[in-house]
Amino acid sequence: AAVAFTGGPFTTKMLFRTVLCILALGIDTTGAFQAPARAGWTRTTPLMSTNDLYAAAPAGQTTGNVFAGVAGNGPRNRDAESTILVQGGSLRTWSYRSPLVEQVQVVLSTEGRPLDADIELWHGPDNTPCKMRVYVENGQLRPFSAVIDTPRGPNTVAIRNIGQIEFPFAADVYANDVEDPSEECIASSATIQGGALRTYPFDTLVDSVEVLLKTDGRPLNARIELLQGPNNNKEVIELYTEDGFDRPFFCILETPGSGNVVRIVNTAPVEFPMTAAVVPHSISDGFGEGAVLGGDVVLGGDLSW
């Protein structure tokens, strides 16, 4: 469309000459209204997200995974790149299409806050052969670690954080280097009838224990509790498995401190017994390190006694 100028022939001629000079000299006018850049200013703080709180720190940096090295041995010290932050009220899934994947290990931990999660195994549409509810009082001191059998793929592991938004946790699901129950654990299985319970006290030297639950092919309904003191639940697992022979349950419970007792309750009717085995997994060799029993008290009142 034609543009009409009302400034007279002189103004039109000057405007035309200005446009020609700009085109000839290649002057960039796109930044005419932009703020001038500061000389020598560069960004020194990298952009980060909340997921970086749970990721491994690059070489030379002191920040990184707040859960790195937590709770000692085993799969909890794996590469933090596979760990996903699950916010309160959100859901994350891990799918395995290959039928060669027969077991996966689930590891959940926090930065010291409570952990409340629902874990389900999806096998086909509207089919949940295994599900559990997990509560841990301190996810840093006692991270949750369990093995879920996934025969006849494809399978999907779904983890939902049913806690509030202030209580996120880190989740990791992997199919390599899955922990297996020891020979002692397999050989020490005992029957628990439906509606019955059995307790397993452990010494202070025991840092973690193995728990193996299975049936002869019937459904498995159980409640696993870690107590430290009278009715003081530090960790609770409510478990359901469609077939306790095809999909047995195996987990490792961290038992720091003294007075730890594992209580197994068969919540199924009397027609559905199960076998349970609870044995020590790791034993500390530094009992009393850095502490003096009795303080400055000398037995008998004589140093040479």
Written description of the protein model:
The protein is mainly beta. Helices cover 8% and strands 35% of the residues. The chain contains 2 helices and 16 strands. The chain has helices spanning 8-25, 183-187; strands at residues 84-86, 91-96, 103-109, 115-122, 130-136, 144-149, 155-161, 169-174, 190-192, 197-201, 206-214, 220-228, 233-241, 249-254, 260-266, 274-283. The protein has an 8-stranded antiparallel beta sheet with strand order 1-8-3-6-14-11-16-9. Strands 2-7-4-5-13-12-15-10 form an 8-stranded antiparallel beta sheet, with no helix packed on it. The N and C termini lie far apart (112 Å). The relative contact order is 0.14. Residues 41-51, 60-64, 66-76, 290-295 and 297-305 have low confidence and may be disordered.
Gyration radius, rounded: 31 Å
**Helix-strand pattern, N to C?**
HEEEEEEEEHEEEEEEEE
- Tell me, briefly, the overall form: elongated
Q: Please tell me the overall pLDDT.
A: 80
Structural class: mainly beta
Helix content: under 10%
List low-pLDDT spans.
41-51, 60-64, 66-76, 290-295, 297-305
SSE inventory with pairings:
Blueprint (H helix, E strand, L loop, with lengths): L7 H18 L58 E3 L4 E6 L6 E7 L5 E8 L7 E7 L7 E6 L5 E7 L7 E6 L8 H5 L2 E3 L4 E5 L4 E9 L5 E9 L4 E9 L7 E6 L5 E7 L7 E10 L22
Structural key phrases:
mainly beta, 2 helices, 305 residues, eight-stranded antiparallel beta sheet, 16 strands
In brief, what are we looking at here?
The chain has 305 residues and is mainly beta. The longest helix is centred in the N-terminal third of the chain and has 18 residues.
